Write the structure tokens for this entry.
Amino acid sequence: MPRPKEKRAPVIKDVAALANVSVSTVSRYLNDSPRISEESRSRIAHAIRLLDYHPSRVARGLVNSTMKSIAVLTSNTTLYGSSMTIQGIEDEARTNNYPVSISKLDDDSADGLRASITMVMDQNPSGVVVMKYDELAAKALNLLPDTVAKVVIAGDRESDLDQIDLRENQSGREITEFLLGLGHANVVHVTIPGGGGGYSRTAGWEAALRANDKPIPDMWHCSWLPSDARELGHEIAHVDGLTAIFAGNDEIAMGLIRGLEDEGKSVPGDISVIGFDDHPLSSVWTPPLTTYRQDFPAAGRQAVQLLLSRIEAQERGEVLPARFVELQGELVVRASAGAPPSAR
Amino acid sequence: MPRPKEKRAPVIKDVAALANVSVSTVSRYLNDSPRISEESRSRIAHAIRLLDYHPSRVARGLVNSTMKSIAVLTSNTTLYGSSMTIQGIEDEARTNNYPVSISKLDDDSADGLRASITMVMDQNPSGVVVMKYDELAAKALNLLPDTVAKVVIAGDRESDLDQIDLRENQSGREITEFLLGLGHANVVHVTIPGGGGGYSRTAGWEAALRANDKPIPDMWHCSWLPSDARELGHEIAHVDGLTAIFAGNDEIAMGLIRGLEDEGKSVPGDISVIGFDDHPLSSVWTPPLTTYRQDFPAAGRQAVQLLLSRIEAQERGEVLPARFVELQGELVVRASAGAPPSAR
């Protein structure tokens, strides 16, 4: 005698049979697909209640094969720019009812990086946002399958992918030219870790100096720590003739200023310092920091908008051309940069 | 005539047959299980190479049903404490070859919260870290299935779960008593958003005042923005007799100090201000900030250690008792707090 049917847990087929629809229709229902009639929707809901059906992961995910979600690949989650970009991604994704999962890339080895990518793809995301703020993220981008919908934020230009460009190069150029315009003979640059590449703020600094027939001074390298920047400030304070610094970011600028002051230099009286990002503490710093505002949350939000339109196009079987969105920041003039002492 | 075998992609059964092991042994191999002999391991590796087999998601994940990974639930990814905790989690997980996926909780609705949880559980994580830094994360914890291995960081005490306690209450108490010990008649508190609860720094401040027979002054509430704290500083500067402030975190302390200075008050000459966290910019602030160091990365690392030992115990069929780890921070005395003006 066969076991009585009610002894086993109901499966998706039971729901389909009771609702008189196909299994794939139930699957679409479970995945919140819009492509399902109101009538079928209500019959399926009724069947699910009657059977006390609890969809398994397989029924909800693998049958349809795309659970609605956005994956974010980034090599950093804690720095101001990264965390604000992530916030923008999360906000826009939530507005569109896409859950977000953030995966920090592993930089220990090629295997570690591949393992991170595998884990992300195993989640079967609807699309992927790659925060290409450094080399590691650029490598990760290359390891992603061609087929998955993706969008890239920042970094060197991609020829065939949707991309948000923060125009760092132009911004670095503008900062440098602003300082030269104040009368400084030259501008020294302190880079962030991993800074560089043709589209970077550092490349913009070089381009501005070259365009103005200035020699390119040696770059100073700094970690992400303001305390290290302070130490660097102790050295830089004693460089002859140095009157202007373009710091790779605001935290470095704040540490540098403190280090310069430790050595008896005044900012901007003796040395002008400009930061980058417009960190929330920049305006309350002493002196209030002249910096370059980057709209990281907007980059995150627009990346998700591009990604969702691409996902939707894929679902309709359409192919969109690669889109390129430029988000120009703006110079925020406060009090940490002025004319050089010689011009006073 | 049957199609020639080489026309279809190899599946896990082909690997098992060629290596002369069971399908579940191949599955264990694909999931890096330690429970597999060196000999089987090498036969399987050989078979995979010969067949050019690429394991599908199903073969790797669902057969064994637990892909190795750690999920993190948090309502915030950008604030200093949250982002540093996440960094500690990521570092320790990477050391143990567990990929990490971070899910930001959705606070718009109960449905949104449930959707976040569903997405996390759909990834079938080996275990979950809940960063219980606020009410939302506490709610999310209640929605997690009982069966999944989990660990809680911070918040009110859990009776039956592994938990890391940052001892905020004791720290808030110590800060307040330090200020009273400097001779201040009372201590005003500016809370962070969502601050409160019996185990919070705010509760510690109240407890210290009560223990010293001081009236409890009205609390001041602030957003996370230093610029809002600065505005608050403009008001607080004009409160009669106020000489000591315990700020809910360092960014708020920095904004407050700037606001007090805007109104002609000196810190610590007229008013002492102590922060919380030991943010990287605290030491380079003017004046260098007296604050309370919290070891967030250690909280993240230790949470992962607890979680992994629990996961391993579950795999062995053992039940571990709930463990409770206290991580006491430390008062960092710099220059933003001193004796009240009357005592000079």
In short: The first strand of chain B starts at residue 70 and ends at 74. The domain at 70-166+296-330 of chain B is CATH 3.40.50.2300 (Rossmann fold). The CA atoms of residues 186 and 323 of chain B lie 38 Å apart.
